[in-house]
Amino acid sequence: MSTLNRCSRCLLPETHETIFFDEAGVCNVCRQHEFKQNKIDWDKKKIELDELVEIYRGKYDYDCLVPFSGGKDSTWTLYYLVEHYKLKPLVVRFDHGFLRPNLIENTTRVLRKLGVDFHTFTPNWKVVQKLMLQSFLEKGDFCWHCHTGIFSYPMWVAIRYNVPLIFWGEPSSEYTSYYSYEQPEEVDEKRFNRYVNLGINSEDMLVRLQGMVDERDLKPFSYPP
Ligand SMILES: [Zn+2]
């Protein structure tokens, strides 16, 4: 009987996307984490962030947009931007239908404490059910609508409300190695197709669900808005 090879440090299995192990049996995601801790000049990064914030401060209705799940990463990001930089953010959440009650409670508490505008969107559950079944049968992951919605919806809102500065809670190198900390990670269509959509883009999904749902439900957001 053979067992899965796992990282000797974090236990990620060999089946994890983009993973490989070095001589010590440590995975590349763990090595990226070391790079984050030891090689990045965080004082210099802080100055870069200061400059970036000042370019956008006060120019638009909102200084920035923060995609927000209510988890620790996006909550910290939002807290830091509001408390440290005194920015006025538009907080955006895509509700995929599986938000736990304590997460929803935490979200309400955070938003009230910080005093920020909140924009949330919940897609049509009938459509979501069909997307989940299709995605599960094809990829073994029912959450295509979660992955794609979480990443694409805030971008759509940013365009719609003309908010050009977006702060994500974390880089993808926290989980995978499509991008490392050494290279700037551009949140573009290429990244979306590589890392987010399970290899099924919206046109592909539309073909799969043809006739099963109203096409307008799969394309509720025209581009440009
Ligand atoms: Zn590891």
Keywords, please?
Rossmann fold; 3 strands; binds zinc ion; 225 residues; 7% strand
Would you give an account of this structure?
The chain is mainly alpha-helical and 225 residues long. It contains nine helices and three strands. The protein has a three-stranded parallel β-sheet with strand order 1-2-3. The structure holds zinc ion. Zinc ion is lined by residues 7, 9-10, 12, 26-27, 29-30. The site of zinc ion has 8 residues, from helix 1.
List the helices and strands and how they pair.
Elements: H1 28-38, H2 42-56, E1 64-67, H3 72-83, E2 89-94, H4 101-114, E3 117-121, H5 125-139, H6 144-160, H7 189-196, H8 202-208, H9 215-218
Parallel strand pairs: 1-2, 2-3
The structure holds zinc ion (ZN).
Zinc ion binds near residues 7, 9, 10 and 12.
Spans of at least 5 consecutive residues whose pLDDT stays below 50 are none
Give the domain tally: 2
- Tell me the helix content: 40-55%
Name of the top-level CATH class of the largest domain: Alpha Beta
Largest sheet: 3 strands, parallel
**What would you call the structural class?**
mainly alpha
How many extended strands? 3
What is the CATH topology of the largest domain? Rossmann fold
CATH architecture of the largest domain: 3-Layer(aba) Sandwich
Q: Provide the list of bound ligands, each named once.
A: zinc ion
The N- to C-terminal Cα distance equals: 55 Å
**Spatial strand order of the main sheet:** 1-2-3
Helix count, per DSSP?
Answer: 9
* Name of the CATH homologous superfamily of the largest domain: HUPs
Mean pLDDT: 91
Beta-strand fraction estimate: 5-15%
Radius of gyration: 19 Å
Shape: globular
